[in-house]
Amino acid sequence: MNKIKIKKTKAKKIKIKRVKDLGIPDDYSLQKIGITQSLISCYVGCPRMFLLCLNRYYNIDSNKKFSFGNIVHFCFDNIYSNGLKEKVIKVLSRYKKENNEKIRGIDESDLQYDINVAQIVIEEYIKRYPEDFKSKIFTDVEKEGSVMLDKFKLNYKIDGKFTNKKKTEKWLKEHKTKGRITEESLMQVLTFDFQNLIYTICEELSCNEELTGVLYNIVRNPQIKPKKKELIENFYKRLRKDIKDRPEFYFIRFEIPYTKKSKNEATEEVISILKEIDYKINECRKTGKNHMFYKNSNNCTGLYTCNFLEACSSGVLTNYEQKEKLFSELKTINY
């Protein structure tokens, strides 16, 4: 009887990616590739989070957290670009096809629920603000651009820019979805809001024109949920009625004018932050160590739990994936 020879093979070792081994991507620079407001905010909140984002890591579970907001932004992009030529339901029917990366890891039924809720909210929003589509002239919806600030490149994307029919003032419009809102403290913060001011500075540099300020447009993510044994159709009817009864609860707007002084102060602050980031990038490359991008434990938990808490706690990136692009929100910049 012939003996069967069994060939022994060595099991391939899976290389574990460790947070402590992360460095600065070889082709990245603040001068040539640039940075976005969201990345700057990452750094200000937690330098370690900035390093993880710079290496394009993300937690798929975070898609669930931002699902409703992403859907609303997608619909606003379409209706403010094209007016009300399409019904909201038709616009939202394209969401799944055009947002593969944003819907990864979201259960189909949960995604459809978010789409249905967004449809109700946006339909009532349009009824709440008819002047947006009659007396306001919107331009540059979802506009992307890049400007140089000092020696650094700033990449940005605005939700929209508009004037009234008299064209006496130009405003940016910023859409936000929020679950919880504390109006008094929010109004105080908005007077020096980092994101609004960066977008205002970038757009003024890009177009060489003065902007009056930002219309901060808040859409509340409904906190009411279906009751036990409640038919989903009945819940949707209950939700629509609640929005009709309390539109001021679901839709809130603040007009925030920005003076030249506040813009100049913000410009100096942004340049200061960018110089600090640039210094740490250079030091990280020189030393091969990333300790300068330290963990900020004060930013791990709060209103939201940081998506990188598991990575910082375990030191490994087992449950994380890398995006194809660093600036995935920007279509015109392929990096």
**Assembly state of the chains shown:** single chain
Q: What is the N-to-C order of secondary-structure elements (H for helix, E for strand)? A: EHHEHHHHHHEEEEEHHEHHEHHE
Span between termini: 62 Å
Strand order of the largest sheet: 3-6-7-8-9
What structural class is derived from the secondary structure elements? alpha+beta
Helix content bin: 40-55%
Query: Major sheet, described briefly?
Result: 5 strands, mixed
Fold blueprint:
Elements (H helix, E strand, L loop, with lengths): L34 E2 H9 L1 H8 L2 E2 L3 H4 L1 H16 L5 H5 L2 H4 L1 H4 L4 H21 L7 E4 L3 E7 L2 E7 L1 E5 L6 E8 L4 H8 L3 H14 L5 E8 L11 H14 L1 H4 E7 L2 H28 L21 H6 L6 E2 L13
Parallel strand pairs: 1-5, 7-8
Antiparallel strand pairs: 2-10, 3-6, 4-5, 6-7, 8-9
Helix pairs in contact: 1-2, 4-8, 8-11, 10-13
Commentary on this structure:
The chain is built from 14 helices and 10 strands. By secondary structure, the protein is α+β, with helices and mostly antiparallel strands. The strands form 3 sheets. It has a 5-stranded mixed β-sheet with strand order 3-6-7-8-9. Strand 6 and strand 7 form a beta hairpin. The longest helix has 28 residues, at 260-287. The mean pLDDT is 90.
